Structures are given as structure tokens and as C-alpha cells.
TrEMBL record:
Protein name, per record: Beta-xylanase
UniProt keyword annotations, A-Z: Carbohydrate metabolism, Glycosidase, Hydrolase, Polysaccharide degradation, Signal, Xylan degradation
EC top class, as a word: hydrolase
Occurrences of domain GH10 (ranges): 60-354
Length: 359
């Protein structure tokens, strides 16, 4: 009877990913250890840098990867599959296939989805970057993109990164952003309004990297958040991506940064955490490096846990196998919480322990 039940279950879910030697996994997962009001997320690998790598699209083809994705996380963020260049490759053509599949996967596995992203300077299609449009046309292109994409997943997206990386390090609006350059910074408020009209239940976020310490960029976001809230623009959250490097020290002021936005009545979130390091010759991190990395991960989690309304904690991929880091920073790597074979690093256990203690 017990044997029958097990095999029936296996037929539905398939065998679990193989446990690696020395793996201390005892059945607890990040999602099951987390406090009820905190989503634990990961990026879902596909598109972007993956397209040039010698492997097929991870989300669609790597079964063990999908198992870990379902088992460990209560939130998923399409890494590239909802970006303009992917989802809107031609002016009058959308490509929803991968995004639909991720949203379906999330529904089947009881996961939230973080939509990423609507207003950004990067990964926009050539037709948009190189086209000649009047201001009115450009505005209507953005509006109809937001209505179409946000509207398609209405009721199924927990949080949208509406505006991504809109300030530079000095706290000035990025002029590389075509919408901001051509239409002025007021377009940011409009993007939030349109997204809210298309999905009134989604929490709408400002999202950026380089906001883990106080400084001009954080000041700019705080001023913008106050301005948007005063104008009753539907802004609901502020997120730190938290792409960290061990070159720059521990993120020990992050809690105080998040608190400034919590004080405004906003949700806060960690949306893209990873911690890269300089790899020694041979490419294998030292035990000490792995401990330091674990400490950084834990510091970021603790910052989120310390703030009342930090409700989503996402790592930017869970395995080094698919990390963007070595592709963009050739001498650095090992930035995620699992090795290529999905065995867990000290950073994984640091998160698990931090979550358990917070429950
Ligand atoms: O991880 C993404 C990678 O696959 C893409 O090639 C890259 C292109 O810009 O974007 C990566 O994700 C970025 C995210 O969308 C926004 N914040 C920075 C992330 C890392 O570059």
C-alpha cells in the first residue's frame, strides 16, 4: 500500500533532484522555513545571456532545475522573459510563450510572480531604440505595452518592477532611458498609473542596484517616492536588487536604507540578490570566501527581516550553473547559493537558518 502510494506520487511529481554527497539537506526548504508574510524568490533562468551559452533554455529543458525551482521557492521572477526585447520583439508582435509558461508553472506550484520590468534603459528591442517616433507616439507605445503586458497577467502578478534603474550613481535621471530622455521624468508617474489601471491588485515597485548603502541614489529614490505619494501615484514599494561583490564590503547599512522607505508606508523587497567573489586560480572558492559570502547573504536577509513591510526576498538565480555573473565579470563568480549540481553552499544554509529563526 505504502509502495503504491509512493509510486503514484512519483508518477505525478517525478523523482526528486539527486542529493549530492555531503549535502546536509533534511527536507526543509527555504520556502517552508520562511515566515508566512515573506515570499522567497529566485530569478527563472532563460533569455538574456543564456541565449549565447552552450546549453538549451534552462527553464524549459533542465528537469532537475525545475524541481529545485518548485521545491525551494514561493516566488519566481522571469530573469529576461518579460523584458521588452523578449516579450515585444517587433512593434506589432508580442511573444508571450515563455512568460505564460512561467506564470503557469508558478500557479501550479503555489508561487507568486514578480514581473520584471516595464520602464528600463536596457534590453529594449531595436525597433524601439532605433525607431523615429513623435513624443505622442512614444508615449502611446509605452502605454499600450504596459496595458498589454500587465493586463495579460492581471491578478497573477504579486509585484511589478515598474521602473528599473532610473537614476545614475549621482541621483540624476538616466538619460539612456529612452522614455525619460524623450518624454521627461514625469513619464515615471504615468507608467505607475497605467500599470495600476491594468492590474489594480499588483504591488508596484521602484527597483535598482547600488542602493544598499546611503548615498545620492538612495536620496533620489526617497525624494521621488515622497513626490509620487504626495501626488497620489500608485507606488507601493521600493526594492534593492542587491547585486553584491565581496570587493566592496558587507551590506551592513541595508536595514537602515530599507527602513527609510518603510517609514514612508511602502513595502520593501530584495529582488536580485547575489554575492560574487574573485575566484582563485582553478576557479574554486576557498572555505573562507564561502563563509564570507554566507555572511553577506545572511546580512541581506536580516535587513529584510528587520523591516516591518519587507515582503519579498529574491535571489538572482539559485545555481552557479546559470548565473549571469561570470559572463559579465570574467574573473568573478560562484555568486549563488548552490553549485552547478544543485548541492548547497554555506550561503544556502545561512538563509535557511535565518528564516527558521525568524519564524
Ligand atoms: O540576469 C540577466 C541576464 O541574463 C541578462 O543578460 C542581463 C542583460 O542586461 O540582465 C540580467 O539581469 C539584470 C536585471 O534584469 C536588472 N538588474 C541587473 C541584472 C543583472 O545584470
Amino acid at each position: 500500500m505504502a509502495v503504491l502510494a509512493t509510486s503514484a506520487l512519483l508518477a505525478i511529481v517525478g523523482p526528486a533532484a539527486p542529493a549530492s554527497a555531503g549535502d546536509r539537506h533534511d527536507g526543509k526548504t527555504l520556502r517552508s522555513a520562511a515566515p508566512r508574510d515573506l515570499r522567497i524568490g529566485t530569478a527563472v533562468a532563460g533569455g538574456g545571456h543564456h541565449v549565447d551559452q552552450p546549453y538549451p533554455d534552462p527553464f524549459f529543458h533542465d528537469k532537475p532545475y525545475r524541481k529545485v525551482l518548485a521545491r525551494e521557492f514561493s516566488s519566481v521572477s522571469p530573469e529576461n522573459q518579460m523584458k521588452w526585447e523578449f516579450i515585444h520583439p517587433e512593434r506589432h508582435r508580442y511573444n508571450f510563450g515563455a512568460a505564460d509558461a512561467i506564470v503557469r508553472f508558478a500557479r501550479q506550484n503555489g508561487q507568486a510572480v514578480r514581473g520584471h520590468t516595464l520602464l528600463w534603459h536596457s534590453q529594449n528591442p531595436a525597433w524601439l531604440n532605433e525607431g523615429t517616433f513623435t513624443k505622442a507616439e512614444l508615449r502611446s507605445i509605452l502605454k499600450s505595452h504596459i496595458y498589454t503586458v500587465v493586463g495579460r497577467y492581471r491578478g497573477q502578478i504579486h509585484q511589478w518592477d515598474v521602473a528599473n534603474e532610473i537614476f545614475n550613481e549621482n541621483g540624476e535621471y538616466r538619460q539612456e532611458n529612452i522614455f525619460i530622455r524623450e518624454l521627461g521624468p514625469g513619464i515615471v508617474a504615468d507608467a505607475f498609473r497605467w500599470a495600476h489601471q491594468a492590474d489594480p491588485k499588483a504591488q508596484l515597485f521602484l527597483n535598482d542596484y547600488g542602493v544598499d548603502w546611503p548615498g545620492a541614489k538612495v536620496d533620489a529614490y526617497e525624494a521621488l517616492a515622497k513626490e509620487l505619494l504626495a501626488a497620489r501615484v500608485p507606488l507601493h514599494g521600493f526594492a534593492s536588487q542587491a547585486h553584491l561583490s565581496m570587493r566592496y564590503g558587507a551590506p551592513d547599512q541595508l536595514a537602515s536604507v530599507l527602513q527609510r522607505f518603510d517609514d514612508l508606508g511602502l513595502y520593501t523587497a530584495i529582488t536580485e540578490l547575489d554575492v560574487r567573489m574573485d575566484l582563485p586560480e582553478g576557479g574554486v572558492p576557498t572555505a573562507e570566501q564561502l563563509q564570507t559570502q554566507a555572511r553577506y547573504y545572511r546580512t541581506v536577509l536580516d535587513a529584510c527581516l528587520a523591516v516591518d513591510d519587507c515582503n519579498s526576498f529574491t535571489i538572482w538565480g539559485f545555481t552557479d550553473k546559470y548565473s549571469w555573473v561570470p559572463v559579465f565579470f570574467p574573473s568573478e563568480g560562484a555568486a549563488t547559493v548552490m553549485w552547478d549540481d544543485f548541492s548547497r553552499k554555506p550561503a544556502y544554509y545561512a538563509l535557511l537558518e535565518g528564516l527558521r529563526q525568524a519564524r
